[in-house]
Amino acid sequence: MAGPGMVLVMAWVAVAIGPVVCILIVRRLLRGRRIFLAWSLAALVSLGWILGVWAFLIEPATLTVRHVTVESAHWQGPPLRIGIISDTHVAAPHTDVARIERLVARMNRERPDVIMLLGDYAGGHEPAEQRARPEQSEILAGVEAFRGLSAPLGVHAVLGNHDSWYDDAAISAALTRSGATVLDNHAERIRRPTGAFWIAGLADMHSPREPPLVSATLRQVTDEAPVIVLTHWPDPFLEVPDGVALTLAGHTHCGQVNLPVFGRLVHASKMSERWSCGLDDEGGRKLFVTGGVGVSILPVRFRAPPEIVILTLRAAARP
Question: What is the homologous superfamily of the domain 63-315 according to CATH?
Answer without folding.
Answer: Metallo-dependent phosphatases (3.60.21.10)
